[in-house]
Protein backbone atom coordinates (compact mmCIF):
# COMPACT_ATOMS: atom_id res chain seq x y z
CA UNK A 1 0.00 0.00 0.00
CA UNK A 2 3.02 2.31 0.06
CA UNK A 3 2.09 3.81 -3.30
CA UNK A 4 -1.18 5.17 -1.92
CA UNK A 5 -1.23 7.04 1.36
CA UNK A 6 -4.85 8.17 0.97
CA UNK A 7 -7.52 6.34 -0.98
CA UNK A 8 -11.23 6.96 -1.51
CA UNK A 9 -13.29 4.10 -2.91
CA UNK A 10 -16.68 4.86 -4.43
CA UNK A 11 -17.46 7.47 -1.74
CA UNK A 12 -20.93 8.95 -1.52
CA UNK A 13 -21.33 11.66 1.10
CA UNK A 14 -23.09 14.89 1.99
CA UNK A 15 -24.72 16.87 4.75
CA UNK A 16 -27.59 15.16 6.53
CA UNK A 17 -29.59 13.12 4.03
CA UNK A 18 -28.36 15.21 1.06
CA UNK A 19 -25.89 13.56 -1.29
CA UNK A 20 -23.21 15.94 -2.54
CA UNK A 21 -20.46 13.51 -3.53
CA UNK A 22 -21.45 10.71 -5.86
CA UNK A 23 -19.19 7.70 -6.23
CA UNK A 24 -15.81 9.37 -5.77
CA UNK A 25 -12.76 7.14 -6.29
CA UNK A 26 -9.47 8.91 -5.83
CA UNK A 27 -6.02 8.19 -4.43
CA UNK A 28 -3.05 10.22 -3.29
CA UNK A 29 0.52 8.88 -3.26
CA UNK A 30 3.03 9.88 -0.56
CA UNK A 31 4.65 13.20 -1.43
CA UNK A 32 2.33 13.72 -4.38
CA UNK A 33 0.98 17.09 -5.53
CA UNK A 34 -2.65 16.71 -6.54
CA UNK A 35 -4.87 19.52 -7.78
CA UNK A 36 -8.64 19.18 -7.55
CA UNK A 37 -10.37 21.78 -9.67
CA UNK A 38 -13.97 22.51 -10.47
CA UNK A 39 -16.65 25.17 -10.42
CA UNK A 40 -18.38 26.51 -7.35
CA UNK A 41 -20.69 23.85 -5.96
CA UNK A 42 -18.90 20.98 -7.69
CA UNK A 43 -18.28 19.30 -4.32
CA UNK A 44 -14.61 20.14 -3.79
CA UNK A 45 -14.99 21.39 -0.23
CA UNK A 46 -17.27 18.45 0.61
CA UNK A 47 -14.59 16.11 -0.72
CA UNK A 48 -11.97 17.48 1.69
CA UNK A 49 -14.47 17.59 4.56
CA UNK A 50 -15.35 13.95 3.91
CA UNK A 51 -11.68 12.93 3.93
CA UNK A 52 -11.38 14.73 7.29
CA UNK A 53 -14.55 13.11 8.68
CA UNK A 54 -16.61 16.29 8.93
CA UNK A 55 -19.52 15.17 6.73
CA UNK A 56 -21.83 12.17 6.73
CA UNK A 57 -20.74 9.32 4.49
CA UNK A 58 -23.53 7.38 2.81
CA UNK A 59 -21.43 4.79 1.03
CA UNK A 60 -17.93 3.73 -0.02
CA UNK A 61 -14.82 3.88 2.14
CA UNK A 62 -11.82 6.07 2.95
CA UNK A 63 -8.42 4.48 3.60
CA UNK A 64 -5.32 6.06 5.09
CA UNK A 65 -2.03 4.17 4.97
CA UNK A 66 -4.00 1.05 4.02
CA UNK A 67 -6.31 1.35 7.03
CA UNK A 68 -10.01 2.08 6.75
CA UNK A 69 -10.75 5.32 8.60
CA UNK A 70 -14.47 5.77 7.85
CA UNK A 71 -15.46 5.62 11.50
CA UNK A 72 -12.59 7.66 12.93
CA UNK A 73 -13.31 11.06 14.50
CA UNK A 74 -11.65 14.07 12.81
CA UNK A 75 -9.05 14.44 15.58
CA UNK A 76 -7.96 10.82 15.11
CA UNK A 77 -7.61 11.34 11.36
CA UNK A 78 -5.48 14.37 12.14
CA UNK A 79 -3.34 12.30 14.48
CA UNK A 80 -2.79 9.77 11.69
CA UNK A 81 -1.43 12.49 9.40
CA UNK A 82 -4.29 14.28 7.65
CA UNK A 83 -4.26 18.07 7.95
CA UNK A 84 -7.03 20.29 6.57
CA UNK A 85 -6.74 24.04 5.95
CA UNK A 86 -10.40 25.05 5.62
CA UNK A 87 -11.75 27.54 3.15
CA UNK A 88 -13.26 29.53 6.00
CA UNK A 89 -9.83 29.73 7.71
CA UNK A 90 -11.53 29.56 11.13
CA UNK A 91 -9.07 31.64 13.07
CA UNK A 92 -9.98 31.70 16.78
CA UNK A 93 -10.89 35.40 17.11
CA UNK A 94 -10.16 35.89 20.82
CA UNK A 95 -6.68 34.35 20.58
CA UNK A 96 -3.55 36.09 19.31
CA UNK A 97 -1.58 34.75 16.35
CA UNK A 98 0.82 33.00 18.70
CA UNK A 99 -1.98 31.57 20.84
CA UNK A 100 -3.76 30.26 17.73
CA UNK A 101 -0.58 28.38 16.84
CA UNK A 102 0.00 27.09 20.38
CA UNK A 103 -3.59 25.87 20.72
CA UNK A 104 -2.80 22.78 18.66
CA UNK A 105 0.95 22.43 19.24
CA UNK A 106 1.99 18.81 19.04
CA UNK A 107 5.17 16.79 19.54
CA UNK A 108 8.33 18.42 18.27
CA UNK A 109 6.58 21.13 16.20
CA UNK A 110 7.74 24.62 17.14
CA UNK A 111 6.60 28.18 16.66
CA UNK A 112 9.94 29.00 15.04
CA UNK A 113 9.19 26.65 12.13
CA UNK A 114 5.91 28.42 11.51
CA UNK A 115 7.60 31.83 11.71
CA UNK A 116 10.38 30.71 9.35
CA UNK A 117 7.73 29.77 6.79
CA UNK A 118 5.68 32.93 7.36
CA UNK A 119 7.88 35.76 8.74
CA UNK A 120 4.82 38.04 8.58
CA UNK A 121 3.18 36.00 11.34
CA UNK A 122 6.14 36.62 13.63
CA UNK A 123 5.70 40.36 13.17
CA UNK A 124 2.01 40.03 14.00
CA UNK A 125 2.33 37.39 16.72
CA UNK A 126 0.79 39.52 19.47
CA UNK A 127 -2.12 40.64 17.30
CA UNK A 128 -5.59 39.22 17.76
CA UNK A 129 -7.04 36.84 15.22
CA UNK A 130 -9.57 39.42 14.07
CA UNK A 131 -6.94 42.09 13.42
CA UNK A 132 -5.34 40.19 10.54
CA UNK A 133 -5.76 40.76 6.82
CA UNK A 134 -7.21 37.98 4.67
CA UNK A 135 -3.75 36.90 3.53
CA UNK A 136 -2.42 36.85 7.09
CA UNK A 137 -5.40 34.83 8.23
CA UNK A 138 -4.73 32.31 5.51
CA UNK A 139 -1.04 32.13 6.50
CA UNK A 140 -2.08 31.56 10.12
CA UNK A 141 -4.60 28.90 9.15
CA UNK A 142 -1.95 27.04 7.11
CA UNK A 143 0.70 27.43 9.83
CA UNK A 144 -1.74 26.20 12.48
CA UNK A 145 -2.50 23.05 10.52
CA UNK A 146 1.24 22.50 9.95
CA UNK A 147 1.74 22.55 13.74
CA UNK A 148 0.01 19.16 13.75
CA UNK A 149 2.66 17.72 11.38
CA UNK A 150 0.43 16.36 8.60
CA UNK A 151 1.73 13.92 5.99
CA UNK A 152 -1.14 14.84 3.70
CA UNK A 153 -1.98 18.53 3.61
CA UNK A 154 -5.48 19.31 2.32
CA UNK A 155 -5.77 22.93 1.15
CA UNK A 156 -9.30 24.18 0.47
CA UNK A 157 -9.23 27.13 -1.94
CA UNK A 158 -6.41 28.90 -0.14
CA UNK A 159 -6.13 31.63 -2.80
CA UNK A 160 -9.76 32.70 -2.68
CA UNK A 161 -10.26 36.43 -2.31
CA UNK A 162 -6.57 37.22 -1.94
CA UNK A 163 -4.48 39.80 -3.82
CA UNK A 164 -2.33 38.37 -6.66
CA UNK A 165 0.90 39.17 -4.81
CA UNK A 166 -0.27 37.21 -1.74
CA UNK A 167 -1.36 34.33 -3.99
CA UNK A 168 2.17 34.19 -5.42
CA UNK A 169 3.66 34.16 -1.92
CA UNK A 170 1.35 31.34 -0.86
CA UNK A 171 2.08 29.29 -3.98
CA UNK A 172 5.81 29.67 -3.21
CA UNK A 173 5.11 28.33 0.28
CA UNK A 174 3.21 25.34 -1.13
CA UNK A 175 6.20 24.63 -3.40
CA UNK A 176 8.44 24.76 -0.32
CA UNK A 177 6.15 22.39 1.60
CA UNK A 178 5.95 19.86 -1.21
CA UNK A 179 9.61 20.21 -2.25
CA UNK A 180 11.23 17.36 -0.35
CA UNK A 181 8.48 14.88 -1.19
CA UNK A 182 7.82 13.91 2.43
CA UNK A 183 4.42 15.57 2.47
CA UNK A 184 1.60 15.12 -0.04
CA UNK A 185 -0.33 18.27 -0.90
CA UNK A 186 -3.91 18.20 -2.17
CA UNK A 187 -4.77 21.63 -3.53
CA UNK A 188 -8.43 22.33 -4.19
CA UNK A 189 -8.85 25.44 -6.32
CA UNK A 190 -11.02 27.38 -8.70
CA UNK A 191 -7.87 29.14 -9.96
CA UNK A 192 -7.09 26.31 -12.39
CA UNK A 193 -3.96 27.89 -13.79
CA UNK A 194 -2.12 28.30 -10.48
CA UNK A 195 -3.24 24.88 -9.25
CA UNK A 196 -2.22 23.06 -12.44
CA UNK A 197 1.16 24.81 -12.54
CA UNK A 198 1.83 23.51 -9.02
CA UNK A 199 0.46 19.98 -9.26
CA UNK A 200 1.78 16.90 -11.00
CA UNK A 201 -1.63 15.24 -11.21
CA UNK A 202 -5.09 16.73 -11.41
CA UNK A 203 -8.69 15.72 -10.90
CA UNK A 204 -11.56 17.65 -12.40
CA UNK A 205 -14.83 17.72 -10.45
CA UNK A 206 -18.36 18.51 -11.61
CA UNK A 207 -21.69 17.82 -9.92
CA UNK A 208 -20.15 15.84 -7.09
CA UNK A 209 -18.23 13.44 -9.30
CA UNK A 210 -14.75 13.24 -10.75
CA UNK A 211 -15.11 13.74 -14.51
CA UNK A 212 -11.44 13.63 -15.45
CA UNK A 213 -8.20 12.54 -13.81
CA UNK A 214 -4.70 12.63 -15.23
CA UNK A 215 -1.36 14.46 -15.41
CA UNK A 216 -1.73 18.16 -14.59
CA UNK A 217 0.34 19.19 -17.60
CA UNK A 218 -1.96 17.37 -20.02
CA UNK A 219 -5.07 18.92 -18.47
CA UNK A 220 -3.44 22.31 -18.64
CA UNK A 221 -3.17 21.95 -22.40
CA UNK A 222 -6.72 20.62 -22.83
CA UNK A 223 -8.47 23.98 -23.16
CA UNK A 224 -11.74 22.48 -24.31
CA UNK A 225 -12.12 20.19 -21.29
CA UNK A 226 -11.20 22.94 -18.88
CA UNK A 227 -13.55 25.37 -20.48
CA UNK A 228 -16.39 22.90 -20.29
CA UNK A 229 -15.96 22.04 -16.61
CA UNK A 230 -14.29 25.05 -15.03
CA UNK A 231 -15.28 27.75 -17.44
CA UNK A 232 -11.83 29.26 -17.86
CA UNK A 233 -9.43 29.56 -20.76
CA UNK A 234 -5.76 28.94 -19.96
CA UNK A 235 -3.38 31.72 -20.88
CA UNK A 236 -0.49 29.50 -21.96
CA UNK B 1 6.54 42.56 32.07
CA UNK B 2 5.86 44.95 34.98
CA UNK B 3 2.32 45.50 33.71
CA UNK B 4 1.70 41.76 33.81
CA UNK B 5 2.46 41.57 37.52
CA UNK B 6 0.48 44.67 38.43
CA UNK B 7 -3.02 43.10 38.61
CA UNK B 8 -1.99 40.17 40.88
CA UNK B 9 -0.06 42.60 43.08
CA UNK B 10 -3.09 44.89 43.33
CA UNK B 11 -5.23 41.87 44.19
CA UNK B 12 -2.86 40.90 47.01
CA UNK B 13 -2.69 44.48 48.29
CA UNK B 14 -6.50 44.74 48.28
CA UNK B 15 -6.73 41.50 50.27
CA UNK B 16 -4.21 42.75 52.86
CA UNK B 17 -5.94 46.15 53.01
CA UNK B 18 -9.33 44.46 53.53
CA UNK B 19 -7.85 42.53 56.46
CA UNK B 20 -6.79 45.73 58.21
CA UNK B 21 -9.81 47.84 57.17
CA UNK B 22 -12.46 45.33 58.24
CA UNK B 23 -10.95 43.43 61.19
CA UNK B 24 -14.41 42.61 62.56
CA UNK B 25 -15.68 41.22 59.26
CA UNK B 26 -13.12 38.47 58.75
CA UNK B 27 -15.76 35.74 58.50
CA UNK B 28 -17.47 37.64 55.68
CA UNK B 29 -14.17 38.37 53.92
CA UNK B 30 -13.27 34.68 54.17
CA UNK B 31 -16.61 33.77 52.63
CA UNK B 32 -15.83 36.08 49.72
CA UNK B 33 -12.41 34.48 49.22
CA UNK B 34 -13.89 30.96 49.24
CA UNK B 35 -16.59 32.05 46.82
CA UNK B 36 -13.86 33.42 44.53
CA UNK B 37 -12.36 29.91 44.39
CA UNK B 38 -15.74 28.47 43.38
CA UNK B 39 -16.31 31.16 40.74
CA UNK B 40 -12.76 30.64 39.41
CA UNK B 41 -13.62 26.97 38.91
CA UNK B 42 -16.72 28.05 37.00
CA UNK B 43 -14.61 30.39 34.89
CA UNK B 44 -12.44 27.46 33.82
CA UNK B 45 -15.50 25.38 32.94
CA UNK B 46 -17.75 28.05 31.43
CA UNK B 47 -15.47 30.98 30.60
CA UNK B 48 -12.63 28.98 29.08
CA UNK B 49 -14.20 25.78 27.79
CA UNK B 50 -17.71 27.15 27.16
CA UNK B 51 -19.42 24.35 29.10
CA UNK B 52 -22.79 25.77 30.17
CA UNK B 53 -23.48 24.60 33.72
CA UNK B 54 -25.83 25.45 36.53
CA UNK B 55 -24.60 22.66 38.77
CA UNK B 56 -21.14 23.68 39.94
CA UNK B 57 -22.45 23.39 43.52
CA UNK B 58 -22.51 19.59 43.10
CA UNK B 59 -18.72 19.46 43.16
CA UNK B 60 -18.53 22.18 45.81
CA UNK B 61 -20.82 20.17 48.08
CA UNK B 62 -18.99 16.91 47.38
CA UNK B 63 -15.71 18.61 48.35
CA UNK B 64 -17.25 20.04 51.50
CA UNK B 65 -18.66 16.71 52.71
CA UNK B 66 -15.50 14.83 51.73
CA UNK B 67 -13.25 17.25 53.61
CA UNK B 68 -15.60 17.24 56.63
CA UNK B 69 -15.80 13.44 56.80
CA UNK B 70 -12.06 13.16 56.20
CA UNK B 71 -11.34 15.51 59.11
CA UNK B 72 -13.73 13.63 61.42
CA UNK B 73 -12.82 10.04 60.54
CA UNK B 74 -9.35 10.02 58.99
CA UNK B 75 -7.03 12.94 59.58
CA UNK B 76 -7.61 16.47 60.83
CA UNK B 77 -4.80 18.00 58.77
CA UNK B 78 -6.36 20.86 56.72
CA UNK B 79 -4.11 20.49 53.67
CA UNK B 80 -4.84 16.76 53.46
CA UNK B 81 -8.53 17.71 53.80
CA UNK B 82 -8.18 20.05 50.82
CA UNK B 83 -6.75 17.19 48.79
CA UNK B 84 -9.66 14.97 49.84
CA UNK B 85 -12.13 17.70 48.84
CA UNK B 86 -10.40 18.25 45.50
CA UNK B 87 -10.43 14.52 44.78
CA UNK B 88 -14.12 14.20 45.65
CA UNK B 89 -15.01 17.14 43.40
CA UNK B 90 -12.84 15.86 40.55
CA UNK B 91 -14.17 12.28 40.78
CA UNK B 92 -17.79 13.46 40.80
CA UNK B 93 -17.10 15.77 37.84
CA UNK B 94 -15.30 13.02 35.92
CA UNK B 95 -18.07 10.47 36.50
CA UNK B 96 -20.96 12.81 35.72
CA UNK B 97 -18.96 14.60 33.01
CA UNK B 98 -18.39 11.34 31.13
CA UNK B 99 -22.10 11.51 30.27
CA UNK B 100 -22.72 15.27 30.50
CA UNK B 101 -19.93 16.24 28.12
CA UNK B 102 -21.68 14.36 25.33
CA UNK B 103 -24.55 16.84 25.55
CA UNK B 104 -24.82 20.55 24.88
CA UNK B 105 -26.97 23.61 25.44
CA UNK B 106 -30.20 23.31 27.37
CA UNK B 107 -29.85 19.52 27.84
CA UNK B 108 -26.45 20.03 29.44
CA UNK B 109 -27.72 22.79 31.74
CA UNK B 110 -30.67 20.68 32.89
CA UNK B 111 -28.47 17.66 33.52
CA UNK B 112 -25.96 19.66 35.58
CA UNK B 113 -28.85 20.89 37.75
CA UNK B 114 -30.08 17.30 38.07
CA UNK B 115 -26.66 16.04 39.23
CA UNK B 116 -26.54 18.65 42.02
CA UNK B 117 -30.11 17.79 43.09
CA UNK B 118 -29.30 14.06 43.18
CA UNK B 119 -26.22 14.76 45.31
CA UNK B 120 -28.32 16.87 47.70
CA UNK B 121 -30.88 14.08 48.00
CA UNK B 122 -28.20 11.45 48.64
CA UNK B 123 -26.69 13.63 51.37
CA UNK B 124 -30.16 14.14 52.82
CA UNK B 125 -30.95 10.41 52.88
CA UNK B 126 -27.55 9.26 54.16
CA UNK B 127 -28.31 10.78 57.54
CA UNK B 128 -26.04 8.42 59.42
CA UNK B 129 -23.00 9.60 57.53
CA UNK B 130 -23.77 13.20 56.58
CA UNK B 131 -26.07 14.31 59.37
CA UNK B 132 -28.86 14.84 56.84
CA UNK B 133 -30.81 18.09 57.15
CA UNK B 134 -29.05 18.88 60.46
CA UNK B 135 -25.74 19.14 58.63
CA UNK B 136 -22.38 17.54 59.25
CA UNK B 137 -21.06 18.62 62.62
CA UNK B 138 -17.99 17.95 64.70
CA UNK B 139 -15.37 18.97 62.16
CA UNK B 140 -12.24 19.95 64.10
CA UNK B 141 -9.49 20.76 61.64
CA UNK B 142 -5.92 20.64 62.94
CA UNK B 143 -3.29 23.36 62.65
CA UNK B 144 -2.53 24.64 59.14
CA UNK B 145 0.85 23.15 58.16
CA UNK B 146 1.13 22.11 61.82
CA UNK B 147 1.72 25.76 62.86
CA UNK B 148 -1.37 27.96 62.65
CA UNK B 149 -4.36 26.99 64.69
CA UNK B 150 -7.86 28.03 63.56
CA UNK B 151 -8.96 30.85 65.92
CA UNK B 152 -12.50 32.00 66.70
CA UNK B 153 -11.88 35.50 65.21
CA UNK B 154 -11.03 33.91 61.87
CA UNK B 155 -7.52 35.27 61.31
CA UNK B 156 -6.03 31.90 60.35
CA UNK B 157 -9.10 31.07 58.28
CA UNK B 158 -8.77 34.28 56.25
CA UNK B 159 -5.08 33.92 55.43
CA UNK B 160 -5.42 30.19 54.80
CA UNK B 161 -8.34 30.71 52.35
CA UNK B 162 -6.51 33.62 50.72
CA UNK B 163 -3.35 31.56 50.21
CA UNK B 164 -5.37 28.74 48.63
CA UNK B 165 -7.27 31.19 46.43
CA UNK B 166 -4.05 32.82 45.18
CA UNK B 167 -2.57 29.41 44.46
CA UNK B 168 -5.66 28.36 42.49
CA UNK B 169 -5.58 31.68 40.63
CA UNK B 170 -1.89 31.24 39.73
CA UNK B 171 -2.44 27.67 38.53
CA UNK B 172 -5.37 28.75 36.35
CA UNK B 173 -3.42 31.75 34.99
CA UNK B 174 -0.58 29.43 33.91
CA UNK B 175 -3.05 26.89 32.57
CA UNK B 176 -4.87 29.57 30.58
CA UNK B 177 -1.70 30.37 28.64
CA UNK B 178 -0.71 26.74 28.09
CA UNK B 179 -1.63 24.85 24.90
CA UNK B 180 -4.28 23.05 26.99
CA UNK B 181 -5.92 26.30 28.09
CA UNK B 182 -5.68 27.79 24.61
CA UNK B 183 -7.24 24.69 23.08
CA UNK B 184 -10.16 25.07 25.53
CA UNK B 185 -10.72 28.61 24.31
CA UNK B 186 -10.46 27.33 20.74
CA UNK B 187 -13.10 24.70 21.52
CA UNK B 188 -15.31 27.43 22.98
CA UNK B 189 -15.07 29.39 19.73
CA UNK B 190 -15.10 26.61 17.13
CA UNK B 191 -15.35 23.00 18.31
CA UNK B 192 -15.40 21.60 14.74
CA UNK B 193 -12.20 23.41 13.82
CA UNK B 194 -10.43 22.30 17.00
CA UNK B 195 -11.43 18.70 16.32
CA UNK B 196 -10.07 18.95 12.74
CA UNK B 197 -6.71 20.22 13.99
CA UNK B 198 -6.26 17.24 16.21
CA UNK B 199 -7.97 17.95 19.52
CA UNK B 200 -10.58 15.59 20.93
CA UNK B 201 -13.27 18.05 21.97
CA UNK B 202 -14.97 15.52 24.25
CA UNK B 203 -11.79 14.60 26.13
CA UNK B 204 -10.66 18.20 26.53
CA UNK B 205 -14.07 19.28 27.78
CA UNK B 206 -14.12 16.36 30.19
CA UNK B 207 -10.62 17.24 31.43
CA UNK B 208 -11.66 20.87 31.95
CA UNK B 209 -14.85 19.82 33.73
CA UNK B 210 -12.91 17.43 35.98
CA UNK B 211 -10.30 20.05 36.81
CA UNK B 212 -13.05 22.61 37.45
CA UNK B 213 -14.75 20.04 39.68
CA UNK B 214 -11.52 19.57 41.65
CA UNK B 215 -11.22 23.31 42.22
CA UNK B 216 -14.88 23.59 43.24
CA UNK B 217 -14.14 20.70 45.63
CA UNK B 218 -11.30 22.73 47.14
CA UNK B 219 -13.69 25.65 47.68
CA UNK B 220 -16.12 23.29 49.41
CA UNK B 221 -13.34 21.84 51.57
CA UNK B 222 -12.31 25.35 52.66
CA UNK B 223 -15.89 26.07 53.76
CA UNK B 224 -16.08 22.82 55.71
CA UNK B 225 -12.81 23.46 57.50
CA UNK B 226 -13.35 27.14 58.27
CA UNK B 227 -17.02 27.09 59.25
CA UNK B 228 -16.65 23.58 60.75
CA UNK B 229 -20.09 22.72 59.44
CA UNK B 230 -21.42 21.31 56.18
CA UNK B 231 -25.10 21.69 55.34
CA UNK B 232 -27.27 20.48 52.46
CA UNK B 233 -27.19 24.08 51.22
CA UNK B 234 -23.75 23.42 49.76
CA UNK B 235 -25.48 21.52 46.94
CA UNK B 236 -28.17 24.16 46.40
CA UNK B 237 -29.24 25.45 43.03
CA UNK B 238 -29.09 29.04 44.28
CA UNK B 239 -25.37 28.64 45.02
CA UNK B 240 -24.70 27.49 41.45
CA UNK B 241 -26.85 30.29 40.05
CA UNK B 242 -25.24 32.96 42.23
CA UNK B 243 -21.78 31.78 41.19
CA UNK B 244 -22.87 32.13 37.57
CA UNK B 245 -24.19 35.66 38.14
CA UNK B 246 -20.93 36.65 39.86
CA UNK B 247 -18.96 35.36 36.88
CA UNK B 248 -21.15 37.16 34.35
CA UNK B 249 -20.93 40.37 36.41
CA UNK B 250 -17.15 40.27 36.42
CA UNK B 251 -16.66 38.88 32.94
CA UNK B 252 -16.04 35.33 31.74
CA UNK B 253 -12.79 33.80 30.58
CA UNK B 254 -10.40 36.24 32.20
CA UNK B 255 -9.99 35.08 35.85
CA UNK B 256 -9.92 38.67 37.14
CA UNK B 257 -13.58 38.84 36.16
CA UNK B 258 -14.29 35.98 38.57
CA UNK B 259 -12.53 37.81 41.41
CA UNK B 260 -14.05 41.20 40.69
CA UNK B 261 -17.55 39.85 40.08
CA UNK B 262 -17.56 37.87 43.32
CA UNK B 263 -16.26 40.75 45.45
CA UNK B 264 -18.76 43.22 43.96
CA UNK B 265 -21.73 40.84 44.15
CA UNK B 266 -21.05 39.82 47.73
CA UNK B 267 -20.26 43.36 48.90
CA UNK B 268 -23.43 44.75 47.30
CA UNK B 269 -25.42 41.81 48.68
CA UNK B 270 -23.97 42.41 52.17
CA UNK B 271 -24.71 46.12 52.23
CA UNK B 272 -28.11 45.91 50.48
CA UNK B 273 -29.33 43.04 52.67
CA UNK B 274 -28.23 44.90 55.82
CA UNK B 275 -30.19 48.00 54.75
CA UNK B 276 -33.26 46.25 53.41
CA UNK B 277 -33.55 42.57 54.31
CA UNK B 278 -36.61 42.14 52.05
CA UNK B 279 -35.79 43.95 48.83
CA UNK B 280 -32.03 43.50 48.51
CA UNK B 281 -32.49 41.26 45.46
CA UNK B 282 -33.81 44.31 43.63
CA UNK B 283 -30.40 45.98 43.93
CA UNK B 284 -28.61 42.87 42.69
CA UNK B 285 -31.04 42.61 39.76
CA UNK B 286 -30.50 46.25 38.81
CA UNK B 287 -26.74 45.75 38.99
CA UNK B 288 -26.85 42.71 36.71
CA UNK B 289 -29.11 44.53 34.24
CA UNK B 290 -26.79 47.54 34.15
CA UNK B 291 -23.73 45.37 33.53
CA UNK B 292 -25.40 43.26 30.86
CA UNK B 293 -26.58 46.38 29.02
CA UNK B 294 -23.56 48.64 29.35
CA UNK B 295 -20.68 46.19 29.84
CA UNK B 296 -21.72 42.92 28.19
CA UNK B 297 -18.19 41.57 28.53
CA UNK B 298 -18.26 42.17 32.32
CA UNK B 299 -16.84 44.66 34.80
CA UNK B 300 -13.28 43.41 34.24
CA UNK B 301 -13.66 44.75 30.71
CA UNK B 302 -14.31 48.31 31.99
CA UNK B 303 -10.77 49.69 31.38
CA UNK B 304 -10.77 48.41 27.77
CA UNK B 305 -14.27 49.78 27.21
CA UNK B 306 -13.33 53.20 28.63
CA UNK B 307 -10.23 53.28 26.45
CA UNK B 308 -12.35 52.49 23.41
CA UNK B 309 -14.92 55.11 24.42
CA UNK B 310 -12.23 57.79 24.75
CA UNK B 311 -11.07 56.94 21.23
CA UNK B 312 -14.56 57.58 19.94
CA UNK B 313 -16.02 54.06 19.92
CA UNK B 314 -19.79 54.02 19.73
CA UNK B 315 -20.50 51.10 22.01
CA UNK B 316 -18.44 50.71 25.14
CA UNK B 317 -19.10 47.06 25.61
CA UNK B 318 -18.70 45.80 22.08
TrEMBL record, chain A:
<keyword id="KW-0029">Amino-acid transport</keyword>
<keyword id="KW-0067">ATP-binding</keyword>
<dbReference type="InterPro" id="IPR017871">
    <property type="entry name" value="ABC_transporter-like_CS"/>
</dbReference>
<protein>
    <submittedName>
        <fullName>Branched-chain amino acid transport system ATP-binding protein</fullName>
    </submittedName>
</protein>
<keyword id="KW-0547">Nucleotide-binding</keyword>
<keyword id="KW-0813">Transport</keyword>
<dbReference type="GO" id="GO:0005524">
    <property type="term" value="F:ATP binding"/>
</dbReference>
<dbReference type="GO" id="GO:0016887">
    <property type="term" value="F:ATP hydrolysis activity"/>
</dbReference>
<dbReference type="InterPro" id="IPR003593">
    <property type="entry name" value="AAA+_ATPase"/>
</dbReference>
<comment type="similarity">
    <text>Belongs to the ABC transporter superfamily.</text>
</comment>
<dbReference type="InterPro" id="IPR003439">
    <property type="entry name" value="ABC_transporter-like_ATP-bd"/>
</dbReference>
<feature type="domain" description="ABC transporter">
    <location>
        <begin position="6"/>
        <end position="232"/>
    </location>
</feature>
<dbReference type="GO" id="GO:0015807">
    <property type="term" value="P:L-amino acid transport"/>
</dbReference>
<dbReference type="GO" id="GO:0015658">
    <property type="term" value="F:branched-chain amino acid transmembrane transporter activity"/>
</dbReference>
<dbReference type="Pfam" id="PF00005">
    <property type="entry name" value="ABC_tran"/>
</dbReference>
<dbReference type="InterPro" id="IPR052156">
    <property type="entry name" value="BCAA_Transport_ATP-bd_LivF"/>
</dbReference>
<dbReference type="InterPro" id="IPR027417">
    <property type="entry name" value="P-loop_NTPase"/>
</dbReference>
Automatic annotation (TrEMBL), chain B:
<keyword id="KW-0812">Transmembrane</keyword>
<dbReference type="InterPro" id="IPR043428">
    <property type="entry name" value="LivM-like"/>
</dbReference>
<keyword id="KW-0472">Membrane</keyword>
<keyword id="KW-1133">Transmembrane helix</keyword>
<dbReference type="InterPro" id="IPR001851">
    <property type="entry name" value="ABC_transp_permease"/>
</dbReference>
<feature type="transmembrane region" description="Helical">
    <location>
        <begin position="28"/>
        <end position="51"/>
    </location>
</feature>
<feature type="transmembrane region" description="Helical">
    <location>
        <begin position="206"/>
        <end position="224"/>
    </location>
</feature>
<feature type="transmembrane region" description="Helical">
    <location>
        <begin position="82"/>
        <end position="101"/>
    </location>
</feature>
<feature type="transmembrane region" description="Helical">
    <location>
        <begin position="280"/>
        <end position="302"/>
    </location>
</feature>
<keyword id="KW-1003">Cell membrane</keyword>
<protein>
    <submittedName>
        <fullName>Amino acid/amide ABC transporter membrane protein 2, HAAT family (TC 3.A.1.4.-)</fullName>
    </submittedName>
</protein>
<feature type="transmembrane region" description="Helical">
    <location>
        <begin position="157"/>
        <end position="175"/>
    </location>
</feature>
<feature type="transmembrane region" description="Helical">
    <location>
        <begin position="108"/>
        <end position="126"/>
    </location>
</feature>
<dbReference type="GO" id="GO:0015658">
    <property type="term" value="F:branched-chain amino acid transmembrane transporter activity"/>
</dbReference>
<dbReference type="Pfam" id="PF02653">
    <property type="entry name" value="BPD_transp_2"/>
</dbReference>
<dbReference type="GO" id="GO:0005886">
    <property type="term" value="C:plasma membrane"/>
</dbReference>
